[in-house]
Amino acid sequence: MKSNEEMVEYLISIGALKTQRIIEAFLNIDRLDFVKPEYAKEAYENYPLPIGYGQTISQPYTVAFMLELLQPKSSDDILDVGCGSGWTTALLAYIADKGSVMGVEIVEQLVEFGKNNLKKYNFKNAKIVHGDKLLSKDQHFDKILVSAAAKEMPNELIDAMKKNARMVIPVNSSIFLVEKKDNELFFDEHYGFSFVRLM
Questions:
Q1: 75 labelled catalytic
Q2: DSSP class per residue in the chain
């Protein structure tokens, strides 16, 4: 695929992208801006690409699938765990234009890479910080996206969900949609994915 638009058209044609606001985000946030220069010619292909330090920018299909499960909204406060290149942070920032997005990345060198990529879009509602997945007790979010696989469901992230929040997280080789409705949790599992490990 030769352009971001072609990539988006492909994702729509296979049913990965369905929601208008998420489609707009994919059209306006160019994946090329988040890949390493040596992979520029492959920026629009439907597979993950290395960004260094054993990490990747995720496959477009997988990102589309996860965002469709997450269903981010304009006023959401969103946590983006394992944000790597900053691509998902930028997509979420475009959607949550009246909310906020915090990208968290544990690999220090990738924090700078992600920040520099995010700067290309001048978002006022998004930031990328260095840190592990543990949060302070007073931080709570409407939506949480995790882009690295946990070995088991992390309680810290469940505790960080607001009432009626959603989290999309890979656990081993499945992607889970976790919904908190009042104080009850609901889990929906989708099999057959591959992710780098959540550290």
A1: no
A2: --SHHHHHHHHHHTTS---HHHHHHHHHS-GGGGS-GGGGGGTTSSS-EEEETTEEEPPHHHHHHHHHHH---TT-EEEEET-TTSHHHHHHHHH-TTSEEEEEESSHHHHHHHHHHHHTTT-SSEEEEE--S---TT--EEEEEE-SBBSS--HHHHHTEEEEEEEEEEETTEEEEEEEETTEEEEEEEE----PBP-
Residue numbers of the chain with a pLDDT score lower than 70 = 132-137, 194, 196-199
Q: Of these residues, 58, 85, 100, 147, which one is catalytic?
A: 58
pTM of the model: 0.94
